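Subgroup meeting minutes
Present: P.N., E.W., G.H.
Scribe: E.W.

1. P.N. recapped why we're keeping a running log of single-chain structure predictions: easier to compare across weeks, and new members can see raw inputs and outputs side by side.
2. G.H. added today's entry (405 aa).
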Amino acid sequence: MPTSLAEAFTRLAGLVLTVLPLLIWPPDSAVAQAPERLLAYDYMVAGDQNRTRVLLNFDREPEVDWSLLRAPHRLVLDLPETDFGIEEEEASPRGLVSRVRYGRMSPGRSRMIFTMPGPFALEEIAVLKNETSPGYRLIIDLTSSSETAFEAALRERVARPPESGDQQQTAAPQPKDGRFTVALDPGHGGIDGGARGVNGTFEKAITLTFAEELKKKLEETGKYNVVLTRSEDVFLALDERVRIARANEADLLVSIHADAIRMRDFRGATVYTLSERASDAEAAATAARENLSDEIAGLVVQDQKDDVADILVDLIRRETHAFSIHFARTLIGELGDTVHLVGNPLRSAGFIVLRAPDVPSVLLELGYLSNPQDERQMQDAVWRAKAAAAITEAIAAFAAAKAGG
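Output recorded in log:
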């Protein structure tokens, strides 16, 4: 018996010695898989309208690629995934830099975009190790230039354009199981913050929060497959949002937004459908703002062209458009009892994100972040829950009608 007990203790001790190091020190492979983002901090701009220097510190050496864009004149920096510790006051216009945007483009990639009021020359861009402190510093020297010289510099870089957003890692399409599939598209994201509220709320945050809550509400019914075009703060090109909806064979796409305009008294929700001719001037202006998303992120936007001029495809588009109008009217009917709507809430314009030929699609502006009351509402979980419930009812009615029930 003592011998047996001693053997048991020996085996237990051996097991502890084998497992304990794994608990204290994880395997090298686990450590290697942990994503490590760069940290950017101490952003500084100095100079005037003729010569400007930009300085930005990093906790370790960054790999930097750059390109130029016109209309407006911009310098685009592509970086590994980066956390930007930049204060709002630091990013105010100075010298030749009239605006700076920064944020995540996709997993593993971030971007900074410097907008200038006119043509400029990139005199130098360098990454140097700090002599008296840890880390590295990025130095960008800019000078004013002529349009001819800027165009020449742009052409030199055109052989190495920045990567587009189409190579992002997106979730695999969900298998169809007979249930109605809803694609929810939280507008903006990553480097494209969208509109900003009077109290500092970013549109990209509001749209993602609302989409996640609406997804949960729909899934609780057990009737729907629900796909989010993005589930985190990441940039997504407009045509990629459409591609995700189509790849998942969505029966409906709802793109969620929260606009801002100069008239602070203007408030209320609006539902948009696709039309090449806008229903009114405000709808045209809204579509123009939303369609700028790709350009804001520094993507070169190509002219949209129909690749098929087929009678059958045209019939599909017409049927899809009819379904979109049907759902838009149903949605307005359900929202009317819960959400304040603008006058004439059903509008239309040429929104790129609504161009799927075979997926009924609407763009829902929850309200205006430029209006303090709308901004407060969209930050209120109770209001969002009521709005989500109304949208869920509208989707249920539309799904039943589309199924012939």
